[in-house]
Amino acid sequence: MRDGAQLAARVWLPEEAEQTPMPAIMEYIPYRKRDITRGRDATNHAYLAGHGYVCIRVDMRGSGDSDGVLTDEYTQQEQEDGVDAIAWLAEQPWCDGSVGMMGISWGGFNSLQVAAKQPPALKAIISICSSDDLYADNMHYMGGCLLGDNLSEATVMFAFNTLPPDPLIVGNRWRDMWFDRMENSGLWLEQWIENQRRNAYWSTSSVNEHYSAIQCPVYAIGGWADGFTNTVLRLMQHLEVPRKGLIGPWGHKYPHQGIPGPAIGFLQEALRWWDYWLKGKDNGIMDEPMLRAWEQDSIPPDTSYAERPGRWIGESGWPSDNIRMRRYGLGPYTIVMGEGHGGPHQRDEHESSLVLQSPLSVGLFAGKWCSYAATPDLPGDQREEDGGSLIFSSRQLAEPLDIFGMPVVELELSSDKPQAMLAVRLSDVAPDGKATRVTYGLLNLSHRDSDANPEPLVPHRRYRVRIPMNGIAQRFPAGHQLRLSVSTSYWPLAWLPPEPAQVEIYPGSCTLTLPERSPGEEDARLPEFNEPEEAPPLDITTFEASEHNWLLHRDLATKESTLEVINDQGHFLIEDTGTEVRRSTREWYTTVHDDFTSARGETYTERSFKRDDWNVEIYTRSILSCDESNFFIHAQLDAYENDYRVFSKNWEKVIPRDHM
């Protein structure tokens, strides 16, 4: 790097590259190339290298076997290092000077961020499951509400940031590097909760602040079961460079491993992209529609389905001329679907209202903001959720209804408290009454006008608020109903307000706007995706299988409810390095009765590496709780070498609530 620090990398080098230089593809993430992502890297990068590309997987500064300490996500230091790594790649004798960047999640984020730095050798990127807006569309906040995934993601990084480098790579300094990380990487949850409103902390690395800075072609990819799909739609609308978008039914996975399916031959699709932009092969990929998406068919509600029925649809541009935003009025408990009901009637100060104050059980079947589809983390049957919600239902549809885009709800309301939140959900209701959530949105009512400058509500004053829901492509069949559900809690997907609030909604002044789509001629001409392919899997020996589950515990005597999340990735041996790896994470989200200040999230992680005379174990514990005025963080870190505890540290933090 420009300051002399060294980053560790693994390179897949086609044999002929030393005689005939080739383009390079870089993935740049903090998730340990030598062990944790070794299996995924082996199937992805070896495949691309086998088709004529140098592939390089770089450990970010402070992670894996690289120098330094990682102190936060998406820093300017990280982006500068990415620029330096690309420059280094382009100068190597086996690289022809053209570089692409590719990654999922963190690697998708920094592909966009590094592209905005305009390194000369970077010719194109593929960004998967990423965000252009770190505040409004990430794992931290949504609609100004604090997400439960904030704690979950902080836990992931708390565990990663305390892991040591491998002594076989860095030598005898591994222990000093390890202690430096444990002492100085910091408690990321603290800074994420300190910044509860949109400010420079979030905007500095959000590419939506300067789309025009991205000057290379972009392929943006996501999945409807993931949390990041809105980014694909925004990038298609706002980027000025050649671009493509792809949204499948998947969770937070590479599309060739996509669950729910159908998975696609993503690596072949990636090769078409790289061949076009890095090798100049006119293979027709840019003649196809700009945006492709999986339009989902109706299914019964379930939390773990393997396939999502539907079809691929295509749009030559975005926003699309095939889509019209159609407004429907809301009546008492109804969505008025007939013609001539395209908006709210003139306000009547004396019109009747519907009163809503939801129990804290609403949200226990919401699933995860960012689903990996490896656990029952998709939303379940919404009937139990709807029992604590205000619902508006349409008549049975006389003919199918297709939507593609972001539905929007506008509500006229008042609250008896200065702080409140709303969750709105659009569901598909089958003739048997089962309700499947299609999409949803959140709004912290203090953020109704601005995420940067929130203001409390004046109790009992009427306000008009707008709540966008996540983008979706969905077909509602004839005979089904649409249901709009509104609740004042959505725990633990979103953190609770400081106290219960009773919200009055004036339905005659409210609307639901749907992005209704007419099937386009391009749909029938879309080329088929190939079946998934990848390189041979990593050779491992499994000692203990992985376990993934969500468990709901309800104590009817104490009225305590706890959602337990089990993410145990087992115990296995990586044969080619001789390293045993053990990984396990558990999370608990608890409330008691209707006490909003009883909200509590706790996480616990175990990590260990063992090989010959190298034996290290790391345990972390994080607790996030609150009262009406503050958030409280308690965190613990304990590290062991050869069964002796060699490091221990506790954190205690109090962070004032800021309209949250």
From TrEMBL:
GO MF annotations, alphabetized: dipeptidyl-peptidase activity
UniProt keyword terms in alphabetical order: Hydrolase
Name of the molecule in the record: CocE/NonD family hydrolase
PANTHER family cross-referenced by the UniProt entry: COCE_NOND FAMILY, PUTATIVE (AFU_ORTHOLOGUE AFUA_7G00600)-RELATED, PEPTIDASE S9 PROLYL OLIGOPEPTIDASE
Xaa-Pro dipeptidyl-peptidase C-terminal domain ranges (all copies): 271-527
Xref: Pfam families: Peptidase_S15, PepX_C
Domain of life: Bacteria
Source species: Billgrantia pellis
Presence of the UniProt keyword Hydrolase in the record: yes
Gene3D superfamilies recorded: alpha/beta hydrolase, Galactose-binding domain-like
